[in-house]
Design goal:
533 residues, eight-stranded parallel β-barrel, five-stranded antiparallel beta sheet, 20 strands, 18% helix, globular
Amino acid sequence: MRRLWAAVAASSMALVGAVAVIGLNSTASAATGGTGTGYLSTQGAQLIDATGTKVRLTGLNWFGMETDNKTFHGLWARPWKDTLDQMASLGYNTIRVPFSEDALKPGAQANSVDGYSNADLVGLTPLQILDKVIDYAGSKGMRILLDRHRPTSAGQSALWYVPATPEATWISNWQMLARHYANNPTVIGADLHNEPHADGTDPNGTGACWGCGDVNRDWRLAAERAGNAILDANPNWLIVVEGVSCTSGGNANAWDNIPDEPCGWWGGNLSKAGEFPVRLSKPNKLVYSAHEYANSVFHQSWFDDPNFPNNLPGIWDKFWGYLQKQNVAPVLLGEFGSTLQNPQDAVWLQKLMEYMGTGVTGMNFTYWSWNPNSGDTGGIVGDDWKTVNQQKQSILQPYLIPPVGGGTNTGSPSVSVSVSRSASQPPNPTGGCAATVKIDNAWQGGFQASVTVKNTGTAAVNPWAATLTVPSGVTLQSGWNATVTQSGTTFTAAAPTWAPSLAAGASVTIGFTANGPSSPAPSGVKLNGAACA
């Protein structure tokens, strides 16, 4: 979860997941996706896999292990494998997993796990549940980034240590995890400490500084100590180092006559990393990470700029983007999100995604969050832990690189092939359906569309499958809320395992992105072979 702060803001969130199913049906699609094979390293500002192939992390946060539950939230609501299936099918290739030291203590017990839908998790320790999630995520070609989110489940901290969790414990726990996953490249690294930030007021700050030289407060020096200790235990891991909020370690004081320094979100200020870089024993394992949030989370001054949103790229350049643009090191935007209830927030999110870029050379990111119970932002899924927030997904979708293999082994990445089930679907018992097709977004060389299909019959269609015709030259890129495949000029959207039945009177909206012209629009929608009005 995230905390709000005083005059300079920062945020800390848990994670949002996604609901939907993406089917890739060709080697060509697989070639543009995935998280590579083997362990990851850096080359300038680019992540590469063990073969030197460029990789981009486009993921999300799934939180809960940092709270009193000591394991992923939502395990009370649905089977855990279904959740991972949805995340992968929506196109998220990486999961950032927040945890606290409390979940790693001997005798730690996970709670709020439903004994019916997740019977295989009952009685397991938090670490054993994490092991199972990692193994299954790896089988889908996904990657896992571990995030030390809190020193205890009680809450976040400005510094990387508190009395209950001194620095030595922080480092030893990281080394334990590094050794535990030493032979599992699904786990790519350590996000050392979530949102180090200022405390007290400048010039008498007591929080995390960057480059101040105080061994007790200089986050850059602490990141070096922990990062090198982790690399001693597991030289294959990435070391992810977040920024601070105010580089002095103290919040601005509006009541004195001292000019205030530029401050950003908690964990979001890397403005001095160029001058005072993190020095690791393996420099090609360093990734910098920032957090970025919308106006509804905290009202930063730059949201009032008359030039909004065109002023935002300059702010991002100053705080963290320069590291990527100057080829210093890769940048991971580890948290960013909003409920999007404020129209300005949607503009902010669209601008941010454009700034990070498309394809494998774009900046890495993990959206906050999958969880609907993130108070500041909500989630990719709604309160039922299944239904996708289509507004959010539609903005993120063009930037996602789906997982297509690799992860848990060091061999060649496999290709995930989705097979259409339409041939085996039973007919609609009443033959009645209605459909609408909408072009949600279009750009040079591609478009995003949504198709809403309503069962107007008197009985459920189970399992359901919808087909539609696209113009010649249109090729499927990704899809969600169904397993979407292509054969010639026909797109087939087959019911996902988590929602196989379409009740009488019910509707389903399938989304997809495609390469090619958006006009003429897709047409000829059918539900289980019956033409829709």
